[in-house]
Design goal:
With 395 residues, this protein is mainly β. 1% of the residues lie in helices and 46% in strands. Strand 10 (119-123) and strand 11 (128-131) form a beta hairpin. The longest helix is centred in the middle third of the chain and has 4 residues, at 228-231.
Length: 395
């Protein structure tokens, strides 16, 4: 079985490099202060083209890095993970879909092609993509998180037919460049969220089924159980003991979470897979096993923080990143274009300071980032196809 003790390997280089400028992230700008060396990466789609993009908080700038190697033109990748270890970003697994234009070019129709085991590593300093060892089990819509310099994955769907998750888990050792199996979870899950907290890899929520067998009647079929009890639970891989432990009711909702992040020893969430912003930031109390609303975080709509947005603006996407003790909400809004029946995407960043003192320092801030193209506005619709991850470059 895999181990979680101890970190970066050399892998075959791909022909695609990741830079829309110098080719070196370390020289890509960035401001002073604690955010100067931070890069936030996420994957988007413009029509039938995937786009790997970087936001630099210190410079307040978005830029396009390039496409994702191995994803053909006219195809998009969904349900994959984007996670950072050291100064590298890993793109893991996913579901490949062919995207066809429908309804005169205003809509797209996606057709599933296959489930991927591919793993790519983006070297942030060199601006270069590298191919890594593939997953032991192809999967999408799974939990993933870095843990002790390794990458843990668990759950997900392994087939395009049916909607039954897997209990299988595995761990990647960047130093050795290989995946190793972890013990199976007690529940089969997909659409679950992964986060490392208090030294353990937490797999939270999702569409889950537990398995039980009749010990008194060996050979009888295993029974599957799916209820709110399984869907609201979490499983934690205890790195010291090498076993999974279940936490009943950790998520408390029947709907899978959207994102859960750890900041200064606390867990935060802002929504679920149906609604990425549910009006406030929540913080988890591990002793009481409850989520509660963070003081001064309540906002019915994050667009209220931006006076420049027209009332007709519609939120297209929202993803959350950790920068020091702040939560950065990277958002996109659809606004009307210059011509009839056209629209554009406006990118905004909303930050919430989890350590702000109420009444002294405002918890919320909002700003419009510079773009690497004109007008700070992007033509057409921009879709978010991954959650984001943060990289801290050393000086």
């Amino acid at each position: 079985m895999g181990s979680l003790q101890g970190d970066v390997a050399t892998s075959p280089s791909l022909s695609s490099t990741g830079s829309s400028g110098s080719g070196n992230d370390n020289n890509a700008g960035g401001g002073g202060g604690s955010t100067g060396g931070v890069r936030i990466y996420a994957c988007f789609a413009y029509g039938g083209t995937n786009s790997f993009e970087c936001y630099e908080p210190g410079a307040n700038r978005w830029r396009r890095v390039g496409g994702i190697p191995g994803v053909p033109d006219g195809h998009v990748l969904k349900g994959f993970a984007v996670v950072a270890v050291g100064e590298s970003v890993f793109v893991i697994g996913g579901r490949l879909c062919r995207r066809d234009v429908a309804d005169g070019g205003s809509e797209y129709h996606d057709t599933d092609v296959g489930v991927r085991a591919d793993v790519l590593r983006y070297d942030v300093r060199r601006g270069e993509w590298l191919a890594c060892a593939p997953l032991l089990l192809p999967r999408f819509d799974f939990a993933c998180a870095p843990c002790r310099g390794r990458i843990c994955v668990a759950g997900g769907l392994c087939s395009l037919s049916g909607a039954r998750g897997t209990a299988a888990a595995e761990v990647y050792n960047p130093e050795e460049g290989r995946w190793s199996p972890l013990p199976d979870m007690s529940t089969m899950r997909y659409k679950c969220v992964g986060v490392t907290w208090q030294g353990g890899f937490h797999v939270v929520g999702g569409f889950a089924e537990s398995t039980t067998a009749d010990a008194a009647a060996p050979g009888t079929p295993t029974m599957l159980h799916s209820s709110a009890l399984e869907r609201s639970s979490a499983e934690v891989f205890n790195c010291h003991r090498g076993v999974w432990e279940i936490i009943p009711g950790m998520w408390q909702l029947d709907v899978p979470p959207n994102q859960i992040v750890a900041v200064a020893g606390r867990l935060f969430s802002s929504g679920d897979c149906l609604n990425s912003w549910k009006g406030h930031v929540e913080v988890y109390d591990g002793e009481l096993n409850i989520w509660s609303v963070m003081d001064h975080s309540a906002l019915p709509d994050l667009s209220l923080l931006a006076s420049s947005l027209p009332p007709s603006a519609q939120q297209l996407y929202l993803t959350m990143a950790v920068v020091d003790r702040q939560l950065y909400f990277l958002a996109g809004y659809e606004v009307d274009g210059d011509d009839d029946d056209t629209y554009r995407t406006v990118s905004l960043v909303h930050s919430f300071d989890t350590s702000a003192t109420p009444g002294i320092v405002p918890a919320w801030n909002s700003f419009q980032p510079k773009m690497d193209h004109e007008h700070n506005v992007e033509d057409g619709s921009k879709e978010l196809f991954s959650q984001c991850c943060s990289v801290q470059l050393s000086s």
